[in-house]
Design brief:
Blueprint: E1 3-5, H1 11-14, E2 17-19, H2 20-41, H3 51-69, H4 73-80, H5 83-91, H6 95-103, H7 107-126, H8 133-150, H9 155-172
Helix pairs in contact: 2-3, 2-9, 3-6, 3-9, 5-7, 6-7, 7-8, 7-9, 8-9
């Protein structure tokens, strides 16, 4: 598995070093997930492809990419060595709120999803180096998925919300490779 040094501008996404296979898998999932969501599930009120749609799809792609990238050794290591950076990264994740606004999803469900996700991630982040961190992350994520399934939201937004929750609660907040 060939490891490459990442440009400084991509450290927050892929860490300082990343394998080509992990980069390709991340990009493939981001593009595939976004395409499936847009072409098969999303039914816009306004069919015009405008700036809000483009920006919304960029954020959707970021959510899908983060689900995979945050599980990589490079990204995990980068944030494990920078606890303040991990906390800031959790706090700035307003993607689901922006996606709801940009692509016209029910904002009240986006707000509930966001609040549960961020609160869960903050709790899990505080459990760094605790033997139950991974289990707690999985438990919070599973309860969150139950919550999402119970909300009457459009299927495309449910898909985005599920992957947003996985990205932030389990993929990112958990230090998967702690030594």
């Amino acid at each position: 598995m060939k490891i490459i040094t990442m440009p400084q501008a991509l450290h927050e996404v892929f860490g300082e070093q990343q394998s080509i296979a992990e980069i390709m898998a991340t990009l493939a999932f981001a593009l595939t997930g976004s395409a499936v969501m847009y072409f098969f599930l999303y039914q816009p009120a306004n069919p015009d492809f405008n700036w809000k749609t483009i920006l919304g799809l960029i954020l959707v792609a970021d959510v899908f990419a983060g689900c995979i990238a945050n599980f990589t050794h490079g990204t995990n290591r980068f944030y494990a060595e920078r606890p303040k950076g991990r906390l800031i990264f959790i706090l700035i994740h307003v993607h689901i709120l922006a996606i709801a606004w940009l692509l016209n999803a029910p904002f009240e469900y986006a707000l509930l999803t966001w609040a549960f996700t961020i609160a869960s991630a903050l709790v899990i982040n505080q459990l760094k180096n605790h033997p139950l961190q991974k289990f707690s992350g999985a438990a919070f994520m599973c309860f969150g998925l139950f919550l999402l399934i119970l909300l009457p939201m459009p299927q495309w937004f449910l898909l985005c919300s599920v992957f947003f929750m996985i990205k932030v609660v389990f993929s990112f907040a958990v230090d998967h490779y702690a030594h």
